[in-house]
Amino acid sequence: MSKEKKKLKFVPNIPNIITLVRLVAIVPLIVLLSHWPQYRTASFILFLSIWLTDMLDGYIARNYNMITDFGKLFDPLVDKIFQISVAVTMAAIDRLPLWVPIFIICREALMIIGGYLLLRNYEVVVYSDVFGKLATVFYVIGFTLLFFIPDDPKWLRSVIFIPGVILSIIATLNYARKNIDNIKRRAKLNL
C-alpha cells in the first residue's frame, strides 16, 4: 500500500497574503539600509512594519482558524530571509560584526538541510517551536537596537546578539531531540 504524498499549496487567506507582502517588503528595506545613515528612520519604520506584520499574520491565523500547511512552512522561511537579509546588509554597512550573519546563515542552512532530509527520508515536517520563535524575537530586538546604539563601543554590537544566538542553539538542539524521538517512535511502530 503506497502512501499518498501531501502537496503543499498556497491558500490565499489573509495571513498568507500578509506573509507574501512581508517577503516583498524585504527588498526595499535592504535598499534603504544600504544607504545608511541617510534613510535610517525610513529603514527602521519598514523594519518594524515587517516584524509587526509577522506577529499580525500569526495572530490572525491562530485566532480566526486560518492556519495552513503553507503558512506553517512559509512564514518561518520569510522570517529566515528577513533575518539573513538584514544581518548581511547591516554587516555590509559596518553596523554589525561579521560573525553574526555568518552564524545566522550557518544555523539556518543546517536547519534547511536537516528539514529537507527529514521530509524526504521520513516524511517529517519541522515546524517552528517556542525556542525558535524566541530566538527570532531576540534577533529582532538586537537588530532594532542597531538602529539606535552609537558607533562606539563596537563590542556592544556583538553583545546584543548573544541572547538570540544562545536561543538559536537551544532551538536547534530541541529540534534535533524532538525529531530523533519522532523517528525512533515511527521505527518502533513499523516493526
Which properties best describe this structure?
single chain; 191 residues; mainly alpha; Four Helix Bundle (Hemerythrin (Met), subunit A); 75% helix
Describe the protein's architecture and organization.
It is built from 7 helices and no strands. By secondary structure, it is mainly α. It has one domain: Four Helix Bundle (Hemerythrin (Met), subunit A) (Up-down Bundle). The model has no long low-confidence stretch (mean pLDDT 90).
> How does the overall form come out from the CA principal axes?
globular
CATH architecture: Up-down Bundle
Biggest beta-sheet profile: none
Return the average pLDDT rounded to an integer: 90
Oligomer status:
single chain
Give the helix/strand layout.
Blueprint: H1 14-33, H2 40-63, H3 69-92, H4 99-122, H5 130-146, H6 155-159, H7 162-190
Summarize the structure.
With 191 residues, this protein is mostly helical.
